[in-house]
Amino acid sequence: MLMRHVTLSLALSSALLLTLPAPAAEPTPDTAPAESTPENTPVAPADSDDAANDAESEAAAQSGLPLEDIQALAQVFERIKQAYVDDVDDKTLLRNAMRGMLEGLDPHSNYLDEDAFRTLHEMTEGEFGGIGIEVGQEDNQLMVISPIDNTPASKAGLQPRDLIIEIDGKSTDGMSLEEAVDMMRGDPGSKIDLTLLREGAEAPINVSLERDNIQAASVNSRMLSPGYGYLRISQFQENTAEETGKAIAALKKQAGDDGLSGVVLDLRNNPGGLLEGAVNVADLFLDSGLVVYTKGRLKDSDMQFEANAETALPKPPMVVLINGGSASAAEIVAGALQDHHRAVVLGTESFGKGSVQSVMPLDDTTGIKLTTALYYTPGGRSIQAEGIEPDVTVQRGRLELEKGGFEIREANLRGHLQNARGESEQDKAALPDSPVAADDYQLGEALNLLRGINVFQQPGMRRHDNQASPDDQAPGDDNHSNGDSVPADDTPDDTTP
Fold first, then answer.
1. 339 classed as catalytic
2. Is 353 a catalytic residue?
3. Of the listed 212, 234, 353, 355, which one is catalytic?
């Protein structure tokens, strides 16, 4: 059995050396060459133990791999093959070993088998079957990063940082991210039950969903108010920058001759996506300077991305909305616009995923997703595990408008003086309600902030529609009272009903 372990560990060493420049150790004359498959390994003569050990030591020394750990891996492999309750093929064991190596590094590195590799391409292309949710792992717990807009998950009310503890009655404890995603995917129309733990909830929450064909349009837009546009990016895909450019052009057209007075860019619950997509979107609002840079161990992991001079929206003030579901590529855009003072960031602290994953194909159908770099905002910030701090913190909520009561104003007093333009209280239009703020408090605050910025930036004397011109003033009337005048009392008369 010792020789079985020796030859098996040599076989594993040889397989690992395929990726290294150092040549494999030559076998000694009285030792049979090690095969690359553990199943059909010839057994050397009993008197060749020392030679085999020497060959194993030489192979481990050349590869730089620790000999004792290689032996332990070989023993684990052999004992599973011999004693596990079910028969397990070598391919499954080796794939699980690769998966374990990657998932033990960080929550975002993993092995991509055929299904996971295909799913990744579907996600970046924007169409797949499932419930429409981005998930990750934190402390070995399956956690919602964010639901995708207009999908079964968002309609069912799933929220960022919800913990999924069961899928169809099966506990997610110890479940790999790949297995969890695979369970949540499925044919449109099929049912799935989730059990959630939510901060602040007294008991687990059970949610039943119906899978759908998820066609994740990453961009939508509309006018919030005359002159003020709204851009929503739900994730960063291959064509997100192109879609955003078209949306900006449509908003400009709707704004008319007066143009856009401001834009809200909504990145809440945006789980991220492609780095290139994020850089190209940020470039639509910046005309120069650094967008983001990355640093890694390899030289080709160190990259810098600059904004081009041509930009789709260079001047109108902007507010970027973020929350705890804004991650990765969304944080790149928010951080770039914040560092360049191109936008005010409003909302709550973002997720804090500041790492870059590279997809490395192993063949046409499988690959690995490996964390290869950390990214930094133009100002040199790494947001890894920190997140983007908003310039203005506004918590998620709804605005409940009070019903207007009767108020006594100057215009209600009997015998009050008329305005210079003669407008009466009855002629004034009723104050508009606040549907945006009532439905989405953060969005309402963003719109109010844009309006305030525009008021503050207006040059010169502010003119009003009801302002009297100098020609309307009475003869001898000027802006200064003479020294014999009694100062006006701005307080209302102390009248008692």
1. yes
2. yes
3. 353
